[in-house]
Amino acid sequence: MRVGGGWRMDERDYQVGALRVDWARGQVLIEYAVTTPTLPHAIVPEPGGGFLAVATRPGTWMLRLDAQGRVVHQLSASDEGDARTFDGHVIASNDGDWLYTGETDRKTGEGWVSVRDVRNLRKVGQHRTHGIDPHQILVDRQGRLLIANGGIPRTPTGHKRNLESMNPALVQLDAATGEKLGEWRLRDRRLSPHHIARNRPAGPGDPALLGIGLQAEHDDPDRRREAPLLALWDGKDLAIPSYTTANGYAGDVAPGPNGGFVLTAQFANRLLLWQPQQSADFTIIGKVQNPCGLWPMGDAPGVAVGAGLGLARWHPGEPAGMLRWPRGLSAGNHWAILA
Q: CA-CA distance, 88 to 81, in Å (whole number)?
């Protein structure tokens, strides 16, 4: 298995690259590494074995690597006038012709999504996200954009400020025109959506759901610790299914078995499973130090997990496993399986 990701090496160099994972031999080896100006965030696999990488918020770069680790395209915020910073995520359109990047206006803090030519990363259009602090973007089956506007006011260097004025929202846009098609908010404005994933319904009559990992930003530490981790959107309503607590921070969310979701409770060092059949509760399926990035393996009952000490995997019908990172590697937030 080949895995793409970002990391810091020997507490010095920020890098992005590919790892070769051999579960049978218990090995994780660096296949190639490319030095980057800052820590990478999202990794998006592309056909042929390469991938896109975007800098952690407030990001100033995005690049494309091929399967051999060569930099094919590299984009800097300075190439576009330095008016915006990247917010850590990029996704392709359903037909593969366009890329969508979440961005923030340096001066106003306003959220934008840029439409880019997949062939060269150049911007060909842009839409307001109708909010601030946009993080992950998904494209639904009809080609519309779903944007997690985190709603957290930030300084130009990315630090949080004025949290009493938070205004988080899930927004749906027409990808071609930028028209706002819908907007949904939770009652508690201190719950920020940042990562989102679609479930894989267990049967034809089961609901299609969007799982939204929540980040609690309450002033009171007790309220933060007791805040929920997951919100669900069924296309009409936004709701919280469970108030089971795990230190108020979901590092990532991914589709899981039986139409459910797997979440990383990063501050609680737990891997959690939510399923519609037991909607009021989470099941602890793993105890892992500093778990964050998730990605589904195969048909999504199983997931791989990027954690503080290594790479873990979980599957409901197979033994769990974990392999240590190569010496000196300090893992970034997100990872992805490469072709």
A: 19
Q: What is the pLDDT of residues 181-224, one digit of tens each?
A: 999 999 999 999 999 999 999 888 888 999 999 999 999 999 99
What secondary structure does DSSP assign to 103-119, as a single string? EEETTT-EEEEEEEETT
Give the C-alpha separation, 113 to 175, whole Å: 10
Alpha-carbon distance of 52 to 101, in angstroms, equals 11
The DSSP call for residue 325 is P
Task: Provide the CATH number for the domain around residue 126.
Answer: 2.130.10.10
Question: pLDDT tens, 309-320?
Answer: 999 999 999 899
DSSP state letter for 268 = G
Q: How many domains does the chain have?
A: 1
Residue 250 in this model has a pLDDT that exceeds 90? yes
Residue 242 falls inside a structural domain: yes
Instruction: Give a yes or no: residue 286 inside a domain.
Output: yes
Pairing assessment for the beta strands 210-216 and 318-324 based on DSSP bridges:
unpaired
Q: What is the mean pLDDT of residues 217-236?
A: 97
